[in-house]
Amino acid sequence: MALEWIVVAYAAGAEAMMLLLLTLPGSNPLRHGLLSVTKTLLKPFLAILPFCLLLLLDIFWKYETMPSCKTLNSCSPSENLRHQKSTVKSQRNALLIAAAVAFYWLLFSVTKLVDRVEQLQFQIKKSAKNE
């Protein structure tokens, strides 16, 4: 199960880096090339969304099937510690899922916005040459 989380972490990291590079001020030559790369990668990164849903269902299943220690003597200290570690890992993984989905949404929105700005700049240059 660790490989799935590594994939989500790398995808979220790549999305964050592209988002950061797209929003840097004053990097027009870099932005133009990165915009075309980002527009190309948005469809493959869309596979992260159902993947995150599957991993979220896995977290939910772990919570539903986790044995509960209702009385103090029903669980040994090692079992109690194992359940606490599992809870912390599940919370960390839920934050990772939320970050991956949020970065994808931000990347999609910013890419669309930057593309529209470049189209408008091109139209302004084209109309300035025609006058």
UniProtKB/TrEMBL annotation:
It holds the Pfam family Bap31. PANTHER family: BCR-ASSOCIATED PROTEIN, BAP (PTHR12701), ENDOPLASMIC RETICULUM TRANSMEMBRANE PROTEIN (PTHR12701:SF12). This is Endoplasmic reticulum transmembrane protein. Its main location: endoplasmic reticulum. Residues 1-123 form the BAP29/BAP31 transmembrane domain. GO terms for cellular component: endoplasmic reticulum membrane. It is found in: Endoplasmic reticulum membrane; Membrane. Keywords: Endoplasmic reticulum, ER-Golgi transport, Membrane, Protein transport, Transmembrane, Transmembrane helix, Transport. It comes from Salix purpurea (Purple osier willow). GO terms for biological process: endoplasmic reticulum to Golgi vesicle-mediated transport; intracellular protein transport; protein localization to endoplasmic reticulum exit site. May play a role in anterograde transport of membrane proteins from the endoplasmic reticulum to the Golgi. It comes from the Eukaryota. Belongs to the BCAP29/BCAP31 family.
